[in-house]
Design goal:
Helices cover 27% and strands 21% of the residues. By secondary structure, it is α/β, with parallel strands linked by helices. It has a seven-stranded mixed β-sheet with strand order 1-2-3-4-5-6-7.
Length: 248
């Protein structure tokens, strides 16, 4: 399957992999890669870099919103093969090393198997490496506070709840918010479309995930690039408020 690469602003691309998105920020010959899909999405990740005129050697850093396998997929490959640093929030670093796992359990998925879309989604997860042991051996916390000295100058925004160290990435200069799983616009197991939280079973601490929507509502921007679902155009504030209303 070929990934869908969509340019949303100059130098910013949202890529739809198999059920999960990643983002490419370009600056000259260098790029920042935010998330990397499932382990089984590797060829799509590499193809998406080529489609925007880049290559894995040009990835200045991999930024991870959170250390679930559908976002962490090729991070260790890029680190080991090309020396690419992999950055996360400090609370998410041990999660990426797999010192613990904040993830929906098999039992919970089975208990929710009656819900529309859950079983086909679960089969896809298994086929894509979503249940594989896939740690990053040397993940690093962000090297500085505020905007990172990387293509796009993304600003990490701590949005805990889905996992303890979940981070969104704000790009103020382009009005872009890369929201990971803190705020999505769709999912194979969701019953609605548009801005929303993922279904309850996916969050490590749902009340904190709901509270993190208030953090996102304070950010200026008109382009929401979620971890799941299509690009959402319109004030990020309104998207976060709508997701909060739907969550209550």
């Amino acid at each position: 399957m070929r990934a869908g690469v969509h340019q949303v602003t100059d130098g910013t691309y949202l890529v739809h992999g198999s059920h999960t998105n990643w983002v490419i920020l370009t600056e000259g010959d260098a790029v920042t890669l935010i998330d990397t899909g499932y382990p089984g999405d590797r060829e799509q990740v590499l193809a998406s870099l080529a489609e925007v005129g880049s290559a894995p050697e040009a990835v200045a850093a991999v930024l991870i919103t959170h250390a679930h396998n559908d976002h962490l997929g090729s991070a260790e490959y890029l680190r080991a093969a090309y020396g690419t640093p992999v950055y996360l929030h400090e609370a998410e670093v041990p999660h990426a090393r797999r010192e613990f796992l904040h993830q929906v359990s098999v039992g919970t998925v089975l208990a929710n198997g009656w819900r529309p879309g859950v079983l086909p989604w679960a089969v896809h997860v298994i086929r894509s490496g979503g249940t594989a042991h896939n740690p990053v051996t040397a993940p690093e916390p962000f090297p500085r506070r505020g905007a990172l000295d990387l293509p796009g100058r993304p600003v990490p925004v701590h949005t805990p709840g889905h996992t303890d160290g979940h981070c969104a990435y704000h790009v103020p200069g382009t009005g872009v918010l890369i929201s990971g799983d803190a705020l999505v616009s769709g999912h194979p197991t969701a019953r609605t479309e548009g801005p929303q939280l993922l279904p309850d079973m996916f969050h490590h601490e749902r009340p904190r995930a709901v509270a993190s929507l208030d953090v996102l509502a304070e950010l200026e921007g008109e382009l929401l690039l979620p971890g799941h679902g299509p690009v959402h155009r319109g004030p990020v504030r309104d998207a976060a408020h709508l997701a909060r209303e739907r969550a209550l």
